[in-house]
Amino acid sequence: MTKEVNLLANYPKTKRNLDERSSSKTEADRAVARQFGKEFFDGDRNHGYGGFNYHPRFWQPVIPTFQEYWGLDANSSVLDVGCAKGFMIYDLAELIPGITVKGIDISEYAIANAMEDMKPHVSVANATQLPFEGDSFDVVISINTIHNLEREECGKALQEIERVSRGKSFITVDAYRNAEEQARMEAWNLTAKTIMSVEDWITFFAEVGYTGDYYWFIP
């Protein structure tokens, strides 16, 4: 049964200048960002992160929430769909010694530049076709990733998360609750191709058979 739950409550909040970002982003910028290459991660700020580097202050406060919510221990296995350079699974492995972690990402650049300790555990793959057997992982996590796919592919990715998980999963997606939030989201968005209202996402989850937990990214 799907459930809305904010498992990222302890992720540090960043101050965002929405007006500045909205006015500076162009369709050309979005086209570059959606290649998910060097420009997106470590290039100009208009094309993405403007430098995507590891810092323990981001995910280490979140890992205890994951650990408590799912009862993670050394015998657990976790897949990160959209792992980028592997920061989250690195902190999982650091804070829960012995845990099995895997990550996939569409970006060849991100995987090639993953954290050294994580390179044996990450691979290039599409969320619509996860390279794992069914029921391979105790938990599957996907943070701000599947909305980067077109609607039909987004549904396939959710079904893949269902297939490879043993019943526990958590995703976050771009969403809005009213017209004001929708306008801000559409102006803020750089990479997402599927953005829906909270209500439409919940309906969509039911349509494609996604039964895991979820939360929203709303700028």
The string of secondary-structure elements, in order, is EHHHHHEHEHEEHEHEHE
CATH topology-level fold name: Rossmann fold
Oligomer: single chain
Mean of residue pLDDT values: 92
**Total domain units:** 1
User: Structural class, judged by helices and strands?
Assistant: alpha/beta
Shape summary:
globular
Low-confidence stretches: none
Task: Describe the structure in brief.
The protein is α/β, with parallel strands linked by helices and 219 residues long. It contains 10 helices and 8 strands. Strands 1, 2, 3, 4, 5, 6, 7 and 8 form an 8-stranded parallel beta sheet that branches.
Summarize this structure as a short list of keywords or feature phrases:
alpha/beta; eight-stranded parallel sheet; 219 residues; single chain; 37% helix; Rossmann fold
What can you see in these coordinates?
There is one protein chain. The chain is an alpha/beta fold. Helix content is 37%, strand content 19%. It has one domain: 3-Layer(aba) Sandwich (Rossmann fold), CATH 3.40.50. The chain has 10 helices and 8 strands. The chain is globular. The two termini are 27 Å apart.
SSE topology:
Elements: E1 3-4, H1 18-24, H2 27-33, H3 38-42, H4 56-59, H5 63-70, E2 77-81, H6 87-95, E3 100-105, H7 108-112, E4 122-124, E5 137-143, H8 151-164, E6 165-176, H9 179-188, E7 196-197, H10 198-208, E8 213-217
Parallel strand pairs: 1-8, 2-3, 2-5, 3-4, 5-6, 6-7, 6-8
